Amino acid sequence: MAGLADIIGLSGKINVQGENVQKMDEFANNTIKKRMSRCGYLCAIASEEEDDVVPVAEGYEGKYTLAIDPLDGSSNIDVNVSIGTIFSIHRRRSSLTMGQGTLEDLLQKGSEQVAAGYIIYGSSTMLVFTTGDGVQGFTLDPSVGEFYLSHPDMKIPERAKYFSINEGNSRFWDEGISRYVDYVKDVDEADGRPLSARYIGTLVSDFHRNLIAGGIFLYPKDKKNPQLPNGKLRLLYEAAPFAFLVQQAGGRAITGDGRNILNIVPESLHQRVPLIIGSKREVDMVENFLLGRV
Ligand code: P6P
After folding, report:
1. 178-210 confidence digits (pLDDT tens)
2. How far is CA 254 from CA 6, 9, 85, 100, in A?
3. Considering the entire predicted model, what is its pTM?
4. Exposure check for the chain: N or C terminus, fewer CB within 10 A?
């Protein structure tokens, strides 16, 4: 009987009976597509791993859409750092009669989400989601294969303990971001500064820690890659679901150029946006620095 190590090779590849070699993110994508395509609730799927709209199985069309990042943080798989799955659900806009959904059913703004959440594969496996009535956290008990409500009505602390940003990009940031990062590093014990730096490189994990302990995550636009003027993260299945979650938990999510993430109407499935998200007080402070108010 192949041990787990034999099944999941060092390169994050899945060896099923030694034949079907897949990288784990491809495996996650294929598994989710296969299962959700026949759930009967969806009319269309968008995936970080797929260029175009993924149709559902004929005869199984439903009235919702799913946008998903099957395995966020996949660069961390090989180094055994926590990763996650992110999902966002909208109600279909096209005709409510049955039939395959369309691109327009998927390109809806974050404030129209009916549900959003993530699964984090860390020291424990947790499902955290909202349907617009608060944020609920469930922890998997692998001995019975059930998720139990372990974190009811999650609220992000108003004050941040952590700040999360890839400081390797600091030479490419806008001045307001640089000034904010300098500010959180200043010593002001009465104001709880300096904040501690924590950056895992998996959005799901950085967000989850900040949701529980209080913090701010920033992936701002930068000048590092002219092809990515809007930063690296995707609107549909990264920024928007987390913006819905953090709003429900009492926090904020902005782009830093005056836009609220939840109000952006997507123009394409894989559109990128800058993301500044977390404890409200900190996001407000970043906005003040970026708008030159401080
Ligand atoms: P960088 C993972 O690839 C990801 O999309 C997010 O999960 C993570 O926050 C970000 O990229 C890390 O990007 O450029 O800092 O390595």
Report:
1. 999 999 999 999 999 999 999 999 999 999 999
2. 43, 39, 22, 33
3. 0.93
4. N
